[in-house]
């Protein structure tokens, strides 16, 4: 597949601080690419470089093989859905969508047809003459999308457009966006700080931190095989257990936790050295509440129950080990023992599901 | 400590009670003279001296003829205790709007005044056998010229001479109409009561002023504006008041006030008492005070205009006396055309002429 | 019971405002309207009639001054808008921090002085012996002194200067509140500078453009000193006419009629402006 977007060594500095620090990326045509990171990680700056509102200090941006660095935003085959949508308040829905077509000198009749068409596609047929302010949040979202998609851009940039929606609508729009992307076949570059949005919708997710990509991978790989402790902690819930590395054997690292228990996990980084500090990441759903019986090869540790958190399928127990909080998923069949605050439990896991990073590894 | 705070509180209560109840009573109790007059006619030191001697508080409002009349007309003669309109602007206005009350000459110290001035003022401010004005300050309008054009401009109509094209200024006001009429050999004052004749005079003046328009740099509207124009040399000849000319002469001897060949136009500013004056007593006190020779001379020195006070001349600044003599020889003084009272309705006729002149291209 | 108390307090709160409106705005205007329909038969008798209004239409000087004043005020308003918009844009969107405040103050400072002082300022610059004239001579661009005062251009310069602040302030306020993303979206969807300005910025700023224009237009129409002092020999201004009628001609009846006509003219033009720009007074003044 051809690349719709290809960037190499992008740098954007503000003063001495590089908001975008040598970023390279390659987005194949027709895919949904997300950039996930906490606020201030530089993702918005990166997006503005792609849109053309800002220029990189170093590096190149290619769209379908064309260098874009010096092309102004109105000449780039790129459109953007803004965080607050930026629908033109003085125009009707139809005029908002027609704005770009008018700039391309599309004749009126043709324009009208295409506006009606795209409104149909985003599920808002016949709303051309409405005032955007009269629409619901979700409807306005779709108008903002339609306004870009009607221009059939090579690349659609989305700047956290779901942030302003309430939870329920956000869940719904996530799915919808994914469908729309497939339906239009347009390449989406989506930035968000919400890992669940990125996971649900994307073909590829780049996790960004301090101007750099920590890892670029499909969602599942990101979840199962985080490349850095940051990704491990940022993507999905995770427990972090700190201790001292005792030994490495068969790609398994053995750690002595601060409470003295000896546990194991898969080696995830190359900087592990025996005798140094290390961190073990294990997801709550991988922890098993075990009695005295222990499956072969499993690691286990003692913990003290703080409280239980009932949340349907996502119910958890909050416990503590050596002062650090530990969360474990409760069995969904309700077979969990009665856990009262202060009671001792034993948490066990399959070492293959745990990942161990060197603690000094940033 | 406790005692003093109690007494303070008592005082505060007393004070606020006084303020609350005595507000209106106080206004009448404190002697006050509300004077509406021209700039320079009530210098600060004169006001201070008067306040000291009489204990009367003087509130001065600066104004001009039209403004004075309008203000008094709007209130039916209230709001001021003493006014200073020109002698020709009293009778017509009084007949039409009834804003003044007659002067009680028994309360005026006539010995301080020049009898000829008193007579002239009485003649022109008489209505139904009563007199409405006491003479105060007099002056003329004529020409202010730079020496370079003094040979060219000796009368109002010379302002239209091509030699001074673009360097001339006058007002679009009635004195200009009157001055031009005299300079054109007519006598507008004699025609004041003959409407038709006055109209025909105005028609001729109108034509002349329209012809003359291209010569004019701008029609001046304020004294300061005119002085600036003459001072910078942007204008070399203008129709204006004598006092302004003498003031410029003191700064630059090249600029002089001259009485035009056809005669300077003379006016007398008077004292007149508004019909609803609230403190007539103070008004007469002020009249008698400022017409004392020494005080009157102070006013002359301040405003540049001469006074109707008898014997004030010897206290007037020497430069001013010299400038006056340079502008007026005996024949020029005899040739001064004193404004007679303006009959009602004249201003409307003149107004139309002035509008036409302004509109003309 | 409670509602009558709250109604009473509402009235009490409104009283100063109502008094102000009635005593200082409504009554004088009604009085002026009444006077304008009086005709002076002789110096002490009055009757009712339309004489003053007839005078206005038959005396070409009046209505020509009237039209001239209206047209020049409209032009001044337009020019003020054209000049104020970039200034407001700069202050609202480009200037940052301190310089923003300083620029805003720079616009405000001239208004600490009275209109008279401001007008004299311009006169010092523009007059024949003034600064501009001597600079031009010093630069050798002209041979002799140039008179730039006493013509319509000078009047318009003075009027624009007087109106500028009243245009800049509302524009800065709205432009300041405009989401930067709107402009970016305008470019992003293919618009050039002109398109973004026309299709996005101007419609956004429309209410403040209209309110600024109304204020500047009214100020200009009602200004007196600037046209009188800076105008040429035949540059009459309508307020000057009214002033002359009231003050120097003692013709209150004619003055009142001209005043009423000016009020009607300004109301009609403001109404037309609102209609054409598709704004409502409520939106513009809110």
How would you describe this protein?
The complex is a heterotrimer of chains A (362), B (361) and C (286). Chain A is an alpha+beta fold and 362 residues long. Chain A contains 8 helices and 20 strands. Chain A has 2 domains: 230 residues, P-loop containing nucleotide triphosphate hydrolases (Rossmann fold, 3-Layer(aba) Sandwich), CATH 3.40.50; 121 residues, Nucleic acid-binding proteins (OB fold (Dihydrolipoamide Acetyltransferase, E2P)), CATH 2.40.50.140. Helices cover 23% and strands 36% of the residues of chain A. A 6-stranded mixed β-sheet of chain A has the order 6-7-8-3-9-10, with helices on both faces. A 5-stranded mixed barrel of chain A has the order 11-12-13-20-14. In chain A, helix 2 packs across helix 3, helix 2 packs parallel to helix 4 and helix 3 packs across helix 4. Chain A is elongated, with a radius of gyration of 24 Å. The two termini of chain A are 35 Å apart. With 361 residues, chain B is an alpha/beta fold. Chain B has 14 helices and 14 strands. In chain B, strands 7, 8, 9, 10, 11, 13 and 14 form a 7-stranded mixed β-sheet that branches. In chain B, helix 7 runs parallel beside helix 14 and helix 9 packs across helix 12. Chain B is globular. Chain B starts with a helix and ends with a helix. In chain B, 46% of the residues are buried. Chain C has a single domain, classed as Orthogonal Bundle (MetI-like fold). Chain C starts with a helix and ends with a helix. In chain C, strand 1 and strand 2 form a beta hairpin. The longest helix of chain C is centred in the first third of the chain and has 35 residues. The interface between B and C is medium-sized, with 32 and 27 residues.
């Amino acid at each position: 597949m051809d690349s719709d977007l290809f960037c190499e060594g992008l740098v954007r500095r503000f003063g001495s601080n590089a908001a975008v620090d040598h970023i390279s990326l390659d987005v194949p045509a027709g895919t949904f690419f997300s950039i996930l990171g906490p606020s201030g990680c530089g993702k918005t700056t990166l997006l503005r470089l792609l849109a053309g509102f800002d220029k990189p200090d170093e590096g190149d941006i290619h769209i379908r093989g064309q260098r874009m660095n010096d092309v102004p935003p109105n000449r780039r085959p790129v459109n953007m859905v803004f965080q607050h949508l930026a629908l033109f308040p003085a125009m009707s829905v139809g005029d908002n969508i027609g704005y770009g077509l008018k700039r391309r000198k599309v004749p009126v009749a043709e324009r009208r047809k295409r506006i009606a068409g795209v409104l149909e596609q985003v599920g808002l047929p016949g709303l051309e003459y409405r005032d955007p302010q009269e629409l619901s949040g979700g409807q306005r979202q779709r108008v903002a999308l339609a306004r870009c998609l009607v221009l059939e851009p090579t690349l659609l940039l989305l700047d956290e457009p779901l942030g302003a929606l309430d939870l329920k609508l956000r869940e719904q729009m996530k799915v919808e966006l994914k469908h729309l992307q497939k339906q239009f076949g347009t390449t989406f570059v989506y930035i968000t700080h919400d890992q669940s949005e990125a996971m649900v919708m994307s073909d590829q997710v780049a996790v960004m931190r301090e101007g750099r990509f920590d890892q670029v991978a499909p969602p599942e790989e990101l979840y199962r095989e985080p490349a850095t402790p940051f990704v491990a902690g940022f993507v999905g819930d995770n427990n972090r257990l700190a201790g001292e590395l005792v030994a490495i054997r068969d790609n398994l690292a053995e750690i002595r936790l601060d409470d003295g228990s000896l546990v194991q996990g898969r080696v995830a980084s190359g900087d592990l050295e025996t005798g140094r500090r290390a961190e073990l990441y294990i997801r709550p759903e991988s922890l098993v509440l075990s009695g005295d019986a222990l499956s072969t090869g499993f690691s286990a540790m003692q913990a003290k129950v703080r409280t239980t958190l009932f949340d349907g399928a996502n119910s958890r127990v909050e416990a503590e080990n050596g002062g650090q909080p530990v969360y474990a998923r409760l069995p969904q069949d309700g077979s969990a023992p009665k856990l009262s605050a202060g009671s001792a439990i034993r948490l066990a896991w399959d070492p293959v599901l745990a990942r161990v990073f060197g603690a000094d590894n940033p | 400590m406790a005692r003093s705070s109690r007494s303070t509180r008592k005082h505060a209560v007393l004070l606020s009670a006084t303020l609350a109840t005595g507000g209106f009573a106080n206004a009448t109790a404190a002697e006050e003279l509300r004077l509406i007059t021209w700039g320079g006619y009530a210098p600060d030191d004169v006001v201070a001296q008067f306040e000291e001697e009489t204990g009367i508080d003087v509130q001065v409002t600066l104004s001009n003829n039209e403004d004075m009349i309008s203000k008094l007309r709007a209130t039916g003669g209230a709001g001021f205790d003493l006014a200073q309109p020109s002698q020709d602007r009293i009778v017509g206005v009084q007949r039409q709007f009834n804003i003044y009350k007659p002067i009680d000459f028994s309360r005026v110290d006539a010995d301080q005044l020049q009898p000829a001035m008193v007579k002239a003022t009485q003649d022109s401010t008489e209505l139904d056998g009563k007199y409405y004005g006491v003479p105060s300050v007099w002056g003329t309008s004529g020409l202010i010229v730079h020496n370079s054009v003094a040979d060219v401009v000796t009368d109002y109509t010379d302002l239209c001479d091509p030699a001074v094209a673009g360097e001339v200024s006058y007002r679009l006001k009635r004195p200009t109409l009157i001055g031009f009429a005299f300079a054109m050999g007519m006598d507008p004052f004699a025609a004041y009561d003959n409407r038709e004749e006055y109209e025909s005079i105005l028609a001729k003046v109108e034509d002349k002023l329209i012809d003359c328009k291209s010569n004019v740099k701008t029609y001046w509207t304020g004294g300061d504006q005119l002085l600036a124009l003459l001072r910078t040399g942007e204008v070399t000849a203008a129709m204006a008041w004598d006092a302004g000319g003498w003031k410029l002469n003191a700064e630059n001897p090249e600029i002089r006030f001259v009485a035009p060949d056809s005669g300077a136009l003379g006016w007398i500013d008077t004292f007149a008492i508004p019909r609803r004056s609230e403190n007539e007593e103070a008004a007469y006190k002020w009249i008698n005070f400022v017409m004392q020779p020494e005080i009157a001379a102070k006013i002359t020195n301040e405003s540049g205009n001469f006074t109707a006070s008898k014997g004030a001349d010897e206290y007037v600044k020497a430069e001013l006396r010299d400038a006056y003599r340079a502008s007026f020889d005996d024949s020029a003084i005899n040739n001064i055309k004193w404004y007679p009272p303006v009959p009602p309705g004249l201003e409307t006729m003149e107004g139309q002429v002035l509008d036409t002149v302004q509109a003309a291209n | 019971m409670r509602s009558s108390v709250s109604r009473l307090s509402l009235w009490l709160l409104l009283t100063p405002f109502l008094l102000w409106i009635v005593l200082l705005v409504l009554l004088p205007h009604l009085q002026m309207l009444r006077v304008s329909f009086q005709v002076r038969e002789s110096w002490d008798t009055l009757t009712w009639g339309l004489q003053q209004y007839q005078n206005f239409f038959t005396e070409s000087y009046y209505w020509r001054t009237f039209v001239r004043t209206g047209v020049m005020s409209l032009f001044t308003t337009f020019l003020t808008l054209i000049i104020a918009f970039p200034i407001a844009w700069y202050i609202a969107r480009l200037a940052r921090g301190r310089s923003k405040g300083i620029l805003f103050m720079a616009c405000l400072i001239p208004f600490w002085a009275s209109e008279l002082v401001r007008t004299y300022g311009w006169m010092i610059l523009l007059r024949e012996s003034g600064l501009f004239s001597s600079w031009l001579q010093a630069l050798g661009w002209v041979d002799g002194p140039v008179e730039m005062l006493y013509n319509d251009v000078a009047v318009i310069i003075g009027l624009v200067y007087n109106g500028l602040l009243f245009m800049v302030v509302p524009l800065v306020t709205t432009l300041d509140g405009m989401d930067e993303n709107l402009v970016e979206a305008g470019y992003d969807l293919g618009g050039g500078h002109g398109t973004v300005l026309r299709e996005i910025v101007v419609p956004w700023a429309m209410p403040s453009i209209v309110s600024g224009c109304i204020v500047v237009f009214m100020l200009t129409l009602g200004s007196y000193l600037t046209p009188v002092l800076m105008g040429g020999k035949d540059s009459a201004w309508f307020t000057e006419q009214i002033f002359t009628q009231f003050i120097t001609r003692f013709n209150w009846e004619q003055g009142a009629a001209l005043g009423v006509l000016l009020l009607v003219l300004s109301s009609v033009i403001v109404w037309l402006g609102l209609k054409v720009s598709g704004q409502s007074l409520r939106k513009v003044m809110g």
